[in-house]
Design a protein that fits this description.
The complex is a heterodimer of chains A (about 250) and B (about 375). With about 250 residues, chain A is an alpha/beta fold. Chain A contains 9 helices and 10 strands. The longest helix of chain A is centred in the C-terminal third of the chain and has 16 residues. With about 375 residues, chain B is mostly helical. Chain B has 2 domains: about 230 residues, no CATH class; about 100 residues, abc type-2 transporter like domain (abc type-2 transporter like fold, 3-Layer(aba) Sandwich), CATH 3.40.1710. Chain B is about 65% helix and about 5% strand. Chain B has a 4-stranded mixed sheet, sandwiched between helices. In chain B, α7 runs antiparallel to α13. The longest helix of chain B has about 30 residues. The chains are: A alpha/beta (about 250), B mainly alpha (about 375). The interface between A and B is medium-sized, with 30 and 25 residues.
Chain lengths: ~250, ~375
């Protein structure tokens, strides 16, 4: 069974001086699931995710990702994960194709793989005619979809998405979630943070962070039952109302 | 090594796609090298002179006409009194005052000596200094002429006289462009090296792509090399550009070998790029990195020996220049270009520069973390 847990965290903590950004969170993510990581602004979602990705050193606690320890084997973790940050992180002054080639290249993919994968993604996203245009000329929704494709370009086992649909219109959001489902179908584990409670319903399991702690973790249906709520929105409001920390 | 290739390809694409960077790299050096050496002129001309001639004698007239005919001075006015002349200086109409006392000719003829008084406007120190020196040498000359007139064919000069003549080695005509152009070229290389490299990395921080890079398994030194190599190459291209301009616009052909210049420049660029890298690890955004670079450039230029000679600085300032990589390169450039120094002659500077390169890059690499 141990092999089925691709992410485990045990009392994982991050302190910035006196401020405890992430307070002893413990959870496990199963292989192939879509795990929703919910919380208000400033609840500590991004910090927790950055620790798991090897971008931020935990203060204490244990965690492993893809079977590797976050303290010692963070560079090995990086080979096995994809990451899409809150900030748009493709190069604006490179073309769609060049971005894919660059990120594929630094993940050590072969030229043949890069070529085939690029063609596949361009077709999948219907971006063939934009392949040689600079990324800055694309509308935001397309950029986000492209960023997601680049994050899973090297076919990682796990992908971390930090508010991937922020600022995107509802239609594109729906399309984006279709992409997430398609990726999930290929066996990729999805770890996603979001503000949109309708998106939470799409997840297999969700955790809700309040003031640095995980206050609830279960399937959306079970959470709604526990908190006697009609929707995830209600569940979230019930939990988030307890927050003492002000939003950033 | 393969990932380094992808990094370099990306970096060069971005550089050649950014017209602002291209302008900075290619047009600015050309313009600076064509304009600055002409503007940074050490020779003083048109020094404005006020004369108070209280003697109105033929000798005083002779002296004044000798001064004005030298070409360095413009006779601003003939003031009636010292007070009037001082007034001219106070209003910055005049740089120099020469007072010829009432009995100048009489004393000169009767007592064989006479006094003159000179007052300088030292607001512009260089002008005052040079102006004073010019005037003094003209008066000395005049003195000699007067004596020659009086002493009729002496067998021996009754007075012992030592005359000093000088010749300027390595720059016989004291053409200041010969030492300004190599110096300005050094400053240009420094600016491209530290500012551009720092701004480039900080830009990735600002737009967030550096985080995307940090989450990849890329090796830290690959990333750093990927940033250093393009600017190192650009630096050498600019140097080539600059030396070509020096050759065709100023006729400056290094007396030493180009190889010596390039070897030193290659090491120097490494050191300067290390500095840029260091700035980028400490600066959070492009404004900070620009300010930091600008502040450093000020010190580098003013304490680098480009405009003022390091030897004439106070001892504590000379110590500071030892930590200024620019001062070594300016020195080496002048040695090689003017004096024809060889690699063996600049050995010491070369080793010091290697030290700079290792220390700055080492520090930068240690303070760059993929994980916060």
């Amino acid at each position: 069974m141990a092999n089925d847990k691709v992410i485990t965290a045990d009392k994982l903590t991050k302190r910035f001086g006196d401020f405890v950004a992430v307070d002893r969170i413990s959870f496990e993510v199963n292989k192939g699931e879509i795990f929703g990581f919910l919380g208000a602004n400033g609840a500590g979602k991004t910090t927790a995710m950055r620790m798991l990705c090897g971008l931020s050193m935990p203060t204490s606690g244990e965690a492993s990702v893809a079977g590797f320890d976050v303290y010692k084997e963070n560079e090995k973790i990086k080979k096995n994960i994809g990451y899409m940050s809150q900030k748009f992180s493709l190069y604006d002054d490179l073309t769609v194709k060049e971005n894919m080639r660059f990120y594929g290249g630094i993940y050590g993919m072969s030229n043949k793989f890069i070529k085939e994968k690029t063609a596949f993604i361009l077709e999948y996203l219907h971006l063939q005619s934009e392949a040689d245009k600079l990324v800055k000329s694309l509308p935001l929704g397309w950029k986000q979809k492209l960023a997601f494709s680049v994050a899973i370009f090297h076919e990682p086992g796990i992908v971390f998405l930090d508010e991937p649909t922020g600022g995107v219109d509802p239609v594109t959001r729906r399309e984006f979630w279709n992409m997430i489902y398609n990726a999930s179908d290929t066996g990729i584990t999805i770890f996603v943070t979001t503000h949109y409670m309708d998106e939470a319903e799409y997840c297999n399991r969700v955790s809700i962070m309040v003031d640095g702690r995980i206050d609830a973790l279960d399937t959306p249906a079970a959470l709604k039952k526990t908190y006697e709520a009609a929707s995830m929105d209600e569940v979230f409001l019930k939990l988030a109302r307890k927050a003492k920390r002000s939003a950033d | 090594m393969r990932s380094l290739r992808f990094l370099l390809q990306k970096e060069f694409r971005q550089i050649f796609r950014d017209p602002a960077i291209l302008r900075v790299i290619f047009i600015m050096p050309v313009i600076q090298l064509l304009i600055l050496p002409w503007a940074a002129d050490y020779e003083m001309k048109d020094i404005r002179l006020s004369v108070i001639d209280q003697d109105h004698s033929s000798y005083s007239q002779k002296l004044i006409s000798k001064i004005t005919s030298s070409g360095y001075f413009i006779l601003n006015d003939n003031s009636a009194s010292y007070k009037d002349a001082l007034n001219e200086i106070e209003h910055d109409y005049s740089d120099l005052v020469l007072e010829i006392p009432p009995s100048f000719e009489k004393n000169l003829v009767k007592e064989d000596e006479s006094k003159l008084f000179m007052a300088l406007n030292a607001i512009n120190g260089v002008k005052a200094n040079l102006g004073g020196a010019y005037l003094r040498s003209i008066i000395q000359d005049f003195n000699k002429e007067v004596r020659l007139e009086w002493i009729q064919f002496p067998r021996f000069n009754p007075e012992l006289s030592i005359e000093v003549t000088s010749s300027n080695w390595f720059n016989p005509l004291m053409n200041y462009k010969y030492f300004m152009v190599p110096g300005i070229l050094v400053i240009l290389l420094t600016m491209v090296g530290s500012n551009l490299a720092a701004a480039n990395i900080v830009k990735e921080k600002e737009i967030g792509t550096i985080e995307q890079i940090n989450v990849t398994p890329i090796k830290k030194y690959h990333f750093i090399l990927g940033k250093l190599i393009p600017f190192w190459i650009l630096g050498l291209v600019i140097l080539t550009f600059g030396l070509t301009i020096a050759r065709f616009a100023y006729g400056i052909i290094p007396a030493g070998s180009f190889l010596t210049i390039y070897i030193f420049a290659a090491v120097y660029l490494l050191a300067i790029l290390g500095l840029g890298l260091l700035i980028s690890t400490y600066a959070a955004n492009q404004q900070q990195s620009m300010l930091l670079s600008f502040f450093m450039m000020m010190i580098f230029i003013l304490l680098g020996g480009l405009y003022t000679s390091i030897d004439s600085m106070p001892e504590w300032a000379q110590w500071i220049t030892k930590f200024n990589p620019v001062s070594y390169f300016i020195n080496v450039m002048r040695m090689v270009v003017l004096k024809g120094s060889s690699l063996a002659d600049i050995k010491e500077q070369l080793f010091i520069m290697m030290g700079f390169a290792i220390a700055l890059n080492g520090w930068a690499i240690l303070s760059y973390h993929k994980r916060a």
